[in-house]
Amino acid sequence: MKLCRFTSNGETRIGKVVGERIIDLSGVPGVGHSMRALLATLPHLRATLEAASKPSFALAAVKLAAPITDAQKYLAIGMNYRAHAEEVAAAGIPTPTSQLWFNKQVSCVNGPFDNIDMPRVSDKLDYEAELGVVIGTRCRHVKEEDALTNVAGYLVCNDVSVRDWQMRSPTFTLGKSFDTHGPIGPWITTADEVPDPHALTLHLDVNGEERQRSSTADMIYNIRQQIAYLSTVMTLEPGDLIATGTPSGVGVATKRYLKVGDIVRVEVDGLGFIENQVAAES
């Protein structure tokens, strides 16, 4: 399934995408208004949700919202693609010897087609195409071989970064958490529809010019290893977001930062795309 949140006639509801239509799931008992709560009960509701066929809306007639806005954690790994680690090493940033994690504060989460702000305080606005993982079950001390059983689904992320603010703090958090700098979507594709998350092509365009293209096979630490590592430290909860790293071609390496008016499109094959325009912060 492709689970989404959509706005029609001023009301935001949970639905599923089927072809060029959205099936409204808000009337299904147990669905409610929280995607995080729905994911926690998804195994019990799956058959009912899959069988739902109405009411429906044309996909083009609604506005897609961020598929989850009430995640408790948004965690992201740095320098996790081999080619990206090499390009930033050439810029003087050493390759970490273990998994390098930081928080994106959940207040940065943004819709798949909403504007991203150019901050008043920086002109070092950068993009990072990433595969996002959505946790589906509460888990701790997960073994690598069991890790993917805890995944509810996958989505497209742009780990928008304010590079000078990122480097002001050793945790990267400030430069990764500006409001609007976490566009995700366009929906959550459930894990059963993604046979191998390590065999996906992701690419990013700015104004139609390709800046990033790679396969998730280039990850240094795969998703199993990431979940095992994180769950050693903390309990992962349904709805938690994990951004799994970006490939080479980022602006900090090429000195080509985003400008007001730029349109950034990130696509992961089989998962859809998100597209966001850079706008001056109001």
Pattern of helices and strands: EEEHEEEHEEEEEEEHHEEEHEHEE
- How large, in whole angstroms, is the Cα Rg? 18 Å
Low-confidence stretches: none
CATH C-level of the largest domain: Alpha Beta
CATH architecture of the largest domain: Alpha-Beta Complex
The CATH homologous superfamily of the largest domain is termed Fumarylacetoacetase-like, C-terminal domain
Overall, the morphology is globular
For the residues shown, what is the average pLDDT? 96
Largest sheet: 12 strands, mixed
Here the CATH topology of the largest domain equals Fumarylacetoacetate hydrolase, domain 2
**How many helical stretches?**
6
Q: How many β-strands, per DSSP?
A: 19
The portion of residues forming beta strands comes to 25-35%
* Total domains: 2
Computed structural class: alpha+beta
List the helices and strands and how they pair.
Elements: E1 2-8, E2 11-18, E3 21-24, H1 35-51, E4 56-58, E5 63-65, E6 74-78, H2 82-90, E7 100-103, E8 109-110, E9 116-118, E10 125-126, E11 129-135, E12 151-158, E13 161-162, H3 163-166, H4 173-176, E14 182-190, E15 201-206, E16 209-215, H5 223-233, E17 241-243, H6 251-254, E18 263-268, E19 272-280
Parallel strand pairs: 6-17, 8-14, 9-19
Antiparallel strand pairs: 1-2, 1-5, 1-14, 2-3, 3-4, 6-7, 10-13, 11-12, 11-17, 12-14, 15-16, 15-18, 18-19
